[in-house]
Amino acid sequence: MRSPSEFAIGHILGAINIPIFSDEERIEVGTVYRQVGIEPAKELGLSIASGKLPIIVSQIQSFYKTGRSVIVYCWRGGMRSKSIVTVLNLMGIQALQLVGGYKAYRRHVLDCLINFKIQPKIIVLCGSTGVGKTSLLQILKGKNIPVIDLEKLANHRGSVFGKIGLGQSTTAHFFDANLLAELECLNEQSYIIVECESKRIGNVYLPECLCEAMRTGIQILVHTNIETRISRLIAEYTDFNETHSTEIVASLRALTKRLGAEKISELLSDFDQGNLRNVVSILLTNYYDPLYGYDKLEKKNYSLAVNCNDLEVASIEIIDFLGKLGG
């Protein structure tokens, strides 16, 4: 029963929103509540909702007739959900109100993540920017290997260029709920493969249980030559539409403090002229590789080192390695 903007920030997975108030109406009722009092706010809310009740009841009834249970919630289990449940029951539709509303559900998700015990061994794909870790994850998932694509859940690639071409990043509410669902679904597996990430991906944060499992997990180094990395990054980040180009320029400017105004000016000029391979090459050698340092690490420090020139071949090598682990 939440307003569209409330629902967009976060909702119970699979929930169907039939809002009593529009965003503007909710703000209006809230303003009256704060400035005038609870009774005038109730009266305003009733006047707004009364004309919508037949449509709301009809919509909910269509789901009720399929034999599914009806559970109604708003923000804190307050007037909106309570009033609708009362009306539904009067109309012969058995409905329940979620105690505590969405706020209680959100607290439940966070509590579960805080206390979650990850049973499978976490296997972490490590490697320099552009080697194809995300593509490799997708190939492995297509082969029925247990995988959690954290960047897909966050809708962000986890770098200064991470949101380019992806639209709005996932809210923490949705990220946490979806991650919990995946962890619960895969918790009986022998292992789960993830990509090496920092604690923060865009605007969301990994729970400590997963961070710790990644730190103590099995590390696989994936590597390839710089020319292949450049080609993969160009294919992933650029489709030459105006919005993406604007985002790339803004991201380049954001690196001014790290690379200096002169270098950024050079990169912007190359990008404007279409010299993309030079732009990506400079970013890799001057920013990403020094930042992550995978190119300087000894392969012997990893349980497995895989050449990713051919991602399909690399996936088979990883699967063979998993077979030796058992499970």
Task: Please give a structural write-up.
It is a single chain. By secondary structure, the chain is α/β, with parallel strands linked by helices. It folds into two domains: 4-109, Rhodanese-like domain (Oxidized Rhodanese, domain 1, 3-Layer(aba) Sandwich); 116-325, P-loop containing nucleotide triphosphate hydrolases (Rossmann fold), CATH 3.40.50.300. 55% of the residues lie in helices and 9% in strands. It has 16 helices and eight strands. The strands form three sheets. It has a four-stranded parallel beta sheet, with helices on both faces. A two-stranded parallel sheet has the order 1-2. Helix 5 links the parallel strand 1 (70-72) and strand 2 (95-97). Helix 11 packs across helix 15. The longest helix is centred in the last third of the chain and has 17 residues, at 276-292. The chain is globular and about 70 Å long. The two termini are 45 Å apart. The model has no long low-confidence stretch (mean pLDDT 92).
Topology:
Blueprint lengths: L3 H6 L13 H13 L2 H13 L2 H12 L5 E3 L6 H12 L4 E3 L3 H15 L5 E6 L6 H10 L7 H5 L17 H15 L4 E5 L4 E2 L2 E2 L2 H8 L2 E6 L2 H12 L4 H12 L2 H4 L1 H12 L3 H17 L11 E4 L3 H15 L2
Parallel strand pairs: 1-2, 3-4, 3-7, 7-8
Antiparallel strand pairs: 5-6
